[in-house]
Amino acid sequence: MSAIPVLFTKNVKLQTDNQLRNAYMDREDSLSGNRKYSNEEITVYWKPSACVHASYCYRELIEVFDPSRRPWVDMKGAPTQKIIDTVNLCPTEALTWKWNDEVRNRQVGSDQLNHIKFRRPELLEKEPEEPLENPVSVKIMADGPIVIKGNFILEHGGNRKEITDSIISVCRCGKSDHQPFCDGKHRKTGFIG
Amino acid sequence: MEEKKDKKNVTVVEVIESGPLRISGNFILKDMKRDAENAPGEVWLCRCGRSADKPFCDGSHKIK
């Protein structure tokens, strides 16, 4: 197997580390009795040690939360929004939830009481620990364009172009005659944003 | 042989036709007007000028 190029071994190792870590975390969770239940949109976390038996969950939505059934949570029992509303009633962090799409999780507001961002932030997917080198700079100019600087790939109209150490300026007002790029028209039209 | 870049370290700027600008990967987003700075990993930025959630897209471009 000496023919494997060195550049692949790092990727293989990273993948193995992640798999090991996930397996370890899953094992820790199952030993502590914590469980998670998912449908296509959300995951509900169950932390029995935090439950004070306020019983809002099964009084509100027995179709999903039925303590006499195993498993006691059936994510197919109700629409996602109904499940979210019910989990939000839980007065402790025994029931928490998150979107499966991490981008959506970042946009959740504090009205979503039992979202893990507010109850159990340790369960949110973290940004990569090691800072990545040479981040691209994306600046939203006041009442002006998006200015992007650095090394990046630009995809536009089916084309894919590698941009190296340069700056592009993307129109935000929608009025440029040189789309998608800025041509200064935002000043004439009085764009605010 | 050219070394394959770590996917996370590649930043992709995608101009979505008649839609927002999607940026993903390794980048710092700095909003000069609202004085905010972070590294969100992925954003959809408004290009039509009509979003109520600027600088982000809120789907307003689809409304005729």
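qc> Residues 1-13 of chain A have pLDDT under 50 and may be disordered.
qc> done
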